[in-house]
Amino acid sequence: MEKVEITITISKDVAVTISSGEGKQKPVQELTQPDQGIERLVPKEKSGPDEQTKADRSNRAGKKMMPFWVRREARIQLRMMAAELGTTQQDLMIQALNAFFQKRGKPPIA
Predict the structure, then answer these.
(1) 0.85 cut: is pTM over it?
(2) Of 44, 52, 48, which Cα lies nearest the Cα of 15?
(3) Of the four, 3, 16, 51, 92, which is 20 to 30 A from 68 by CA?
(4) In angstroms, what CA-CA distances link 7 with 18, 38, 42, 62?
(5) Radius of gyration, alpha carbons of the chain
(6) Which stretches does DSSP call E strand in 3-94?
(7) Which of 32, 33, 5, 29 is nearest to 19 (CA)?
(8) φ, ψ for residue 82 (rounded to 5)?
């Protein structure tokens, strides 16, 4: 029997390749045992230097997410402005929140 190889993408950064072995058919139970049929569990190459993995999000320490609803057009406009300014939507929202605080006589702590 020929060697069968299956690659499963777990996330955009991690893929697992499972192999049926070297010409031998293995039952599924054997393939799920450690180091039997799993050839590699390695991160894929990142598409860009600014992309972060979940493990590398130290900039989020001590912070909380604040979701809110906006019109579709506002979301698109924010995305376009971030691209035009060469920054992120996150940074633009931090600037806007700090400006709002300062306008109301509060410290810019966002």
Answers:
(1) no
(2) 44
(3) 51
(4) 6, 10, 12, 37
(5) 23
(6) 5-9, 14-19, 38-43
(7) 5
(8) -60, -45
The Cα 49–Cα 71 span in angstroms is: 31
Specify whether the CB–CB gap between 17 and 5 falls below 8 A.
yes
Helices and strands per DSSP (H, E), number in the chain: 3, 3
List the structure tokens of 30. 């054997």
Q: Which whole-number Å values give the CA distances from 32 to 4, 38, 47, in the listed order?
A: 15, 8, 30
Reduced DSSP (H G I as helix, E B as strand, rest coil) percent helix, strand, coil of the chain, to 5: 35, 15, 50
**How close are the terminal C-alpha atoms of the chain, in Å?**
61
Over residues 6-50, the pLDDT tens digits come to 777 766 666 666 666 554 544 444 444 455 445 555 555 555 555
